[in-house]
Amino acid sequence: MIGHSKGGAEAITNAFMTNTNCITFNPLAQNLNLDATIIKNYTRVMIHFVVEGEVLNKWFGEVKVGQTIYLDTQVFKTNKKPDDILNHNMPAIKSGLKAKGYKSWKNVPLSSVR
Predict the structure, then answer these.
(1) pLDDT tens-digit profile of 40-61?
(2) What is the mean pLDDT of residues 82-88?
(3) Fewer beta carbons below 10 Å: N end or C end of the chain?
(4) What pLDDT does 38 receive?
């Protein structure tokens, strides 16, 4: 499962329900109302890429399941504060992944991230 923003929250839920790998980008943290057994029996890899200073993580908090990899802030306002909206968008994520050494999200070594 792969998702960004609200689609990230949906990907997380679907990954738990189908026991599949999951990669999200600046996902919306959601209140997982899943049976504890489903979460306990999840055996796959779940990775969240979050750009520092992006709006959803700032306002709603971080996702509490899986592993979060933080990417450096990519866009700043003229007052040198992070632009929380522009840091949420995919161009900032792609730039952050490149700065972190990933050629693309497809190069994330899922077997080495647990």
Answers:
(1) 889 999 999 999 999 998 898 8
(2) 95
(3) C
(4) 78
pTM of the model: 0.87
Instruction: Assess contact for 88 and 81: CB atoms under 8 A.
Output: no
Judge whether 28 and 5 are in contact, CB under 8 Å.
yes
Distance CA 87, CA 90 (A): 8
114 found inside a domain: no
Q: What is the DSSP letter of 107?
A: G
Nearest alpha carbon to residue 30 among 54, 53, 12: 12
**Integer Cα distance of 32 and 59 in angstroms:** 18
Indicate the number of domains in the chain: 1
Q: Which residue range forms the structural domain that includes residue 104?
A: 2-108
Place of tokens 């161009």: 91
Tokens for 72?
A: 């450096």
113: in domain:
no
Residue 30 forms part of a structural domain: yes
